[in-house]
Amino acid sequence: MRTEGLRAQVGYGRKPRLHGGMQCKAAANLLDRQFDVTEPDTAWASDFTFIRTHEGWMYLAVVIDLFSRQVVGWAMRDRADTELVVQALLSAVWRRKPNAGCKDAARAEVFDYIEMFYNPNRRHGSTGDLSPVEFERRYAQRGS
């Protein structure tokens, strides 16, 4: 996007509303759009999207490490709710910091896409046109 002069549209003015009779609280923006990270696991970002299947909508939430842009956690559900985002975050925490046609087809395809293409093969301009896995591998080799 950078080389083509394209930029993402940031926000659309939505404000926190009432939830269960109480004012919703917006989380503080700790990154303040500073996405240039020098080490893995120092800043993560997340997003979610929806996928149409023959059985209805599925929702996908992902967590990426801003260092390499690698997907470090993800979750899919048939509802876009808090549980979806929490599961994606827990997936990232488990993966990065472990203790030492139909919905099932969509989940399998998303798994294949992330694990077999996106992380090992998808190149990013912010990582010198390297895949997230290759970027982190080269970083680790420098420290050895």
Which key features would you list for this structure?
single chain, 144 residues, alpha+beta, 3-stranded antiparallel β-sheet, two-stranded antiparallel sheet, 5 strands, RNaseH-like_sf
Q: What kind of sheet is the major sheet?
A: 3 strands, antiparallel
- Given helix and strand content, the structural type is alpha+beta
N-end to C-end Cα span: 33 Å
As a percent range, the share of strand residues is 15-25%
Low-confidence stretches: none
Q: Supply the number of structural domains.
A: 1
- Which sequence of SSEs, written as H and E, runs from N to C? EEEEEHHH
Helix content: 25-40%
Strand numbers in spatial order across the main sheet: 3-4-5
What form results from the Cα inertia axes?
A: globular
The average pLDDT score comes to 84
Rounded radius of gyration (Å): 17 Å
Count of extended strands? 5
Put simply, the count of helices is: 3
Task: Describe the model.
By secondary structure, the protein is of the alpha+beta class. It has one domain. The protein is built from three helices and five strands. It has helices spanning 82-96, 103-121, 132-143, and strands at residues 18-19, 22-23, 44-53, 56-65, 70-77. The protein has a three-stranded antiparallel sheet. A two-stranded antiparallel ribbon has the order 1-2. It starts with 17 loop residues before the first strand and ends with a helix. The relative contact order is 0.13. The model has no long low-confidence stretch (mean pLDDT 84). This is ISXac3 transposase, IS3 family.
